[in-house]
Amino acid sequence: MVLTPRERIQAAEEAVRELKEALDGVGVVFPSLGVERVSAAGTYGLPLVDLGRCNLDTALRLAAVLHERAHP
Which residues have C-beta within 8 Å of that of residue 3, sequence separation ≥ 6? Predict the structure, then answer.
């Protein structure tokens, strides 16, 4: 099945919403988390999620959450 550009953007936006909600739930916030629009507008491959940049505190929080999850 081939998705239209609009369907691709909607799918990517939903993925970003789910990721943001999950990250918020563990206290991690990526201020510039979003859909990479150029990749979502095309018709080949999957759209990209742009995690953006984060500060040192956010990077360390994410690392701690991932480490805790991997080694409960």
Answer: 11
